[in-house]
Amino acid sequence: MLIGHGPISHRGTPPEKQASEHLRFIREVMERSASFTAVPGWGMFVVGITSLPAVWIATMQTSPEGWLTVWLVEATIALTIAILTLRRKARKCGVSLSSGPGRKYILTLAPSMVAGLLLTVALWRAGNLDVLPTLWLLFYGAGTITGGASSVRTIPVLGICFMVLGVVSLFVPGIWTDILFVLGFGGLHIGFGLYIARRYGG
Amino acid sequence: MRVLRQNLDPLIHARVRLGIVSALAAGETLSFRDLKVLLKTSDGNLSRHAQKLEKAGYIECIKSFQNRIPLTEYRLTSKGIAALLTYVEQMERMLKMARAVTPD
């Protein structure tokens, strides 16, 4: 078997050059296989935008329950947008969300989201809602880091940014916690969403 | 160099088959559709090459149903991983030998 019969066949090309091209081919396929991001940039951008009026409505609430209701409604809207745009992007890229990197992203993100939701219920029952913004920033950040481990590098970086905001919010007064919360769910989603949409096809 | 070339695994030393093995090495489990998009090949071509690799025990095929639609997924076996590593090693040795003969 001659190397010329391989993946990149060039008559008269020295075998070492062909070997180098075969190695490049392997690397490129591996990169393409690993780098698909199912994360929809435009979806993330829209989620960021919807969180801005939610902040305004939430600050007008007089009771902690009212504040929590606003954010739960916003979370439901954000989840719906995320699912719809995730499916749209996967269809556009011609890949399945039920296998490969798409499935890995969802399966690794889900445990943190479920844990965050359960703790939200527990804290609401205990009447301790002050810590919720910090908790959501940290859990969403942790889920995005693990979910992004099988995606493009931008996703874990987004998760780290959320976690940094979460850690900072542990040590600042209450008013600053709200600002960090908006910076995360509004600012980071808008900024990273635009970057992903432009860089990774939507 | 000639000995090394003669020892290349013919099962991997073909564009689509090398692509399938490389993609699965990075992507763990990939569906038939994912592989088709990734390697920019036709259904028939991919199916033919995947069958050869499956027959050799390099990849395993997992068939299931997703919302009543048949789903075919592939996974690299330990034999397939070993074959890819050997192939990459052979290519690197060829490069090293060529560089030793003609240093820059």
Please supply descriptive tags for the structure shown above.
heterodimer; A: 202 residues; mainly alpha; 77% helix; B: 104 residues; alpha+beta; Arc Repressor Mutant, subunit A; 3-stranded antiparallel sheet; 3 strands; elongated
Q: What helical percentage do the residues of chain B reach?
A: 55-70%
The Rg value of chain B, from CA coordinates, equals 16 Å
The oligomerization state is heterodimer
Number of helices of chain A: 7
Percent of residues of chain A in beta strands? under 5%
Q: What is the tally of helical segments of chain B? A: 5
Number of discrete domains of chain B? 1
Strand order of the largest sheet of chain B: 1-3-2
Largest interface: A-B, 32 and 37 residues
Protein structure class of chain B: alpha+beta
N-to-C span of chain A: 44 Å
Low-confidence stretches of chain B: none
What best-fitting shape of chain B do the alpha-carbon axes yield?
Answer: elongated
What is the residue-averaged pLDDT of chain A? 83
Report the sheet with the most strands of chain B, covering strand number, pairing sense and barrel closure: 3 strands, antiparallel
Number of strands of chain A: 0
Globally, the shape of chain A reads elongated
Q: How many strands of chain B?
A: 3
Beta strand % of chain B: 15-25%
The secondary-structure element order of chain B is: HHEHHEEH
Give the helices and strands of chain A as they follow along the chain: HHHHHHH
